[in-house]
Write a structure and sequence with these properties.
The protein is an alpha+beta fold. Helix content is 38%, strand content 35%. β5 and β6 (104-109) form a beta hairpin.
């Protein structure tokens, strides 16, 4: 098998593998698929939920989100699920996430068994779990309340002013005690008269008490008769009263223990109220949580703004001068590229490429030969041999967009250079690149490459962009006409891998 055939077979295998991963990543089905059904769900918010997000029942994946659209002030999501799932009245849907930073998905509760089947014409209601921002807001409110309580207690009892207030209270108690002593001394006669009156009242009661006792005895007998008639009810009431008293006693003991711990600064609440260090640590922790939430929000925001395109292409070189001594025996070039735009609001890009090129690797060898002539005099000959083998070459450029022109500066096939892309319209562009100013592959002049790209089929849902390219390579030296093509697609999954990298 020739070298060109081996390279062609290798590129076909690479394209087949890339096509397989594209189909897997973009969830494009080629064969027959299982029977499915669609249901509509109305959510107040679907923040973080995208099309193709999983749909799960009891944690088991049963489908995906086909479409999300705005309907009034709510979001309407169309779910494509297994046809064997019976959606009944009372079904609900929730926007959940796997772990703290896991992917968003829809958890579907299909309804209770035995309930009537739900009408497919009527959408079911959905809800969204509280976000980290909601939790952060609640924690911030609690922190503000704790700060207010601690500040009030510190202002009331702390510092010299608090000590002065306590001394004033003690002095007031002393003054009240002295005044009571003076009042009792000045009214001693009145107190004696009151005692005499009480003695007279006691004598009267000695006479009246027997009559009151007789009346009470008759009243007690009446109560006894009533109790005998309702003994069971009274016993039940007494038993309930005892149980209630026991429970109240236990509750009172618990409250006394809790208030004692709080007063002594024990437990979480006690430390928050009486321990300034605990309050400071709580405040610091809340500030750290808020800072982490802000950093997480900034990181996810960068990932959402980022634009990414992946490109796979291959070209055939017609007219490339073959030099078996140098190793130029190939006539094809292929590779994969990645175009990153960290922030759509700015005009900065990053272009990365890895290509398999005929002039990939240079090898230089020096051979010295000594031959002795008929006259017996040796003659030494030195030969320098330069050979190139087909190998991978890497390109990495920073790019800036100015109107319809994109300027690129950086590494081209392993050497420094510059390039420009002019976009005539959405489907046609012209590109020029010049590099290799140090004659890396034996050229007398720099390597100049001119070619154009024409989009045959723009990118659509679940299908990449198809394009053709043609041009002239190495115009100033051993030029060759190139014809090729490839595919390009935008990827919203891989870009989250670059979300934490400070690219802008």
């Amino acid at each position: 098998m020739s070298s060109a055939a081996k390279v062609g077979a290798f590129m076909l295998v690479v394209l087949a593998i890339l096509g397989f991963f594209i189909l897997r990543i973009e969830d494009i089905g080629l064969g027959g698929s299982a029977k499915t059904q669609t249901i509509d769900v109305i959510f107040p918010s679907v923040a973080g939920l995208d099309e193709k997000s999983p749909v799960r029942v009891a944690g088991v994946r049963v489908g995906k989100v086909r479409e999300i659209r705005l309907e009034g002030a709510n979001a309407r999501a169309t779910l494509e699920i297994d046809a064997s799932i019976e959606v009944r009245d009372g079904a609900r849907a929730y926007v959940e996430n796997l772990g703290l930073l896991g992917e968003k998905y829809v958890e579907l509760y299909p309804g209770a068994q035995g309930a009537p089947l739900a009408s497919k014409a009527k959408p079911i209601l959905g809800s969204t779990q509280p976000t980290i921002d909601d939790v952060t807001a609640q924690v911030s409110k609690i922190a503000e309340d704790v700060k207010a309580v601690s500040a009030s207690m510190r202002n009331a009892l702390g510092g010299p002013e608090g000590e002065q207030r306590l001394e004033e209270i003690v002095e007031n108690i002393r003054d009240i005690t002295a005044r009571m002593n003076m009042i009792l001394a000045s009214n001693e006669g009145n107190v004696n008269a009151t005692a005499e009156n009480l003695r007279a009242i006691t004598d009267d009661l000695r006479v009246e008490i027997p009559r009151i006792a007789n009346s009470l005895d008759r009243f007690a007998n009446s109560i006894a008769d009533t109790v005998n008639e309702n003994r069971e009810d009274v016993r039940t009431i007494v038993q309930n009263s005892k149980e209630l008293a026991t429970e109240l006693r236990a509750t009172n003991d618990n409250l006394n223990a809790i208030t004692g711990q709080i007063r002594s600064g024990q437990g979480t609440v006690g430390k928050l109220i009486y321990d300034d260090e605990a309050l400071r640590k709580l405040t610091s922790s809340l500030e750290s949580v808020e800072q982490g939430a802000n950093e997480l929000r900034d990181t996810l925001g960068k990932a959402r703004r980022m634009e990414m395109a992946v490109e796979v292409k291959s070209s055939y070189y017609d007219g490339l001068e073959e030099d078996p001594n140098a190793g130029f025996t190939g006539n094809s070039r292929g590779g994969i590229g990645l175009l990153l735009r960290p922030n759509p609001e700015h005009n900065r890009f990053l272009n990365l490429e890895l290509n398999y090129d005929p002039r990939g690797q240079r090898y230089e060898k020096q051979t010295t030969t000594t031959v002795t002539g008929p006259d017996g005099i040796p003659a030494t000959t030195t030969t320098n041999t330069v050979k190139y083998e087909k190998d991978w070459v890497f390109s990495a450029q920073a790019a800036w967009q100015v109107d319809k022109t994109r300027l690129r500066v950086g590494v081209f096939d392993g050497t420094g250079g510059i390039g420009a892309d002019y976009f005539v319209n959405d489907r046609f562009s012209v590109t020029g690149e010049i590099f290799d100013f140090n004659e890396r592959v034996g050229n007398e002049d720099p390597h100049l490459r001119l070619f154009s790209n024409w989009t045959i089929l723009p990118e659509r849902k679940n299908f990449p962009t198809l394009f053709l390219s043609t041009g002239v390579d190495n115009v100033l030296n051993d030029n060759a006409v190139t014809v090729g093509g490839g595919i390009r697609w935008s990827d919203d999954d891989l870009k989250y891998l670059f979300g934490s990298v400070p690219l802008n």
